[in-house]
Write a structure and sequence with these properties.
It is built from 3 helices and 5 strands; from the N terminus they run βββββααα. It has 121 residues and is an alpha+beta fold. Helix 1 packs antiparallel against helix 2. The longest helix has 25 residues. Keywords: Membrane, Transmembrane, Transmembrane helix.
Length: 121
């Protein structure tokens, strides 16, 4: 399934651009910034978040069921991967929210500093 074009903000140079992202191993949306070539990572889509949440719930239920039967059980790699993906997703969502909340005046100031340092032509 092809992903829709994404309006992205680069955290490195703060430029706005549109692009079609690719998926990372865990399902995060990645696209290269056309201005500074930094890889921009965007959060999981709703389907991936739901999948990881349901997977985590089943793993927790399995652990609780095992413990209730007196079996010593440990979380498996799928549960750890789901926790990792959900925690990383939340951090990326917070970063994107901070970037989008930046006022236009601050973006112009940051861009002028980057240009004065020779970072953007």
């Amino acid at each position: 399934m092809n992903l829709a074009s994404l309006n992205a903000i680069c955290p490195g140079c703060r430029s706005h651009f549109n692009g079609v992202p690719r998926r990372s191993f865990f399902g995060f949306q990645k696209l290269p910034c056309p201005h500074c070539d930094e890889t921009v990572v965007y959060p999981l889509t709703g389907g991936y978040r739901t999948f990881y949440g349901v997977l985590l719930c089943f793993m927790v239920l399995g652990l609780v069921g095992s413990w209730a039967q007196g079996v010593a059980a440990m979380p498996n790699a799928l549960a750890i991967a789901a926790i990792y993906a959900l925690v990383r997703n939340e951090r990326i969502r917070q970063r994107v929210a901070r970037l989008e909340a930046t006022s236009p005046d601050e973006r112009v100031a940051v861009r002028s500093v980057v240009q004065s340092q020779g970072g953007e032509s």
